[in-house]
Amino acid sequence: MAILNIVKEGDPTLRKVCRPVTEITPRILQLLDDMAETLVEANGAGLAAPQVGILRRICLVDTGEEIVELINPEIIEREGEQEEVEGCLSLPDVWGYTQRPAKVKVRAMNRYGETFEIEGEGLNARCFCHELDHLDGHLFTDRTVHILTPDEVKEMMGDD
Ligand code: NI
């Protein structure tokens, strides 16, 4: 396993549309393992392959219970809406209120090539949407309704 470099905003990789995975190769399995290690080390909620420079439709979401590996994921159901603060490992100092569905259902493939479905609400719904957006070259700031000011960030972090 290896810790991968997370590219930052401005890197053209983050704006590309990723290609589907057609075959689970040893290289893909290695990438999943490395991404999981990178996500844990970065203390993030999710990580998408383009963030580590790989233009494949792969992302990871930490649901709080487990790290879910999503290959070729699609949102197949969305319900309600929410507007909460989001951040991104590729935009380390930016936080903003972003509109997302309150609940989503995602269909994806796992590392064994099996199709599965997973639901997420609240933070997990935001995270699924955010990570899937990365696979189409979208950053959360494309959808942000308000970017937090430095004072608002301090307040959120409890630094006062
Ligand atoms: Ni992100």
Can you walk me through this structure?
The strands form 2 sheets. The chain has a 5-stranded antiparallel beta sheet, with helices on both faces. It has a 3-stranded antiparallel beta sheet with strand order 4-5-8. The chain is of the alpha+beta class. A hairpin with a 4-residue loop joins strand 2 and strand 3 (67-79). The model has no long low-confidence stretch (mean pLDDT 96). The N and C termini lie far apart (38 Å). It has a single domain (12-157), classed as Peptide deformylase (Peptide Deformylase, Alpha-Beta Complex). The protein has helices at 26-42, 123-134, 150-157, and strands at residues 46-48, 58-62, 67-79, 82-88, 91-100, 103-109, 115-121, 144-147. The chain is globular. It has 3 helices and 8 strands; from the N terminus they run αβββββββαβα.
What is shown here, in short?
By secondary structure, the protein is of the alpha+beta class.
Helix and strand topology:
Blueprint: H1 26-42, E1 46-48, E2 58-62, E3 67-79, E4 82-88, E5 91-100, E6 103-109, E7 115-121, H2 123-134, E8 144-147, H3 150-157
Antiparallel strand pairs: 1-2, 2-3, 3-6, 4-5, 5-8, 6-7
The protein binds nickel (II) ion.
Nickel (II) ion (NI) binds at residues 88-90, 130, 134.
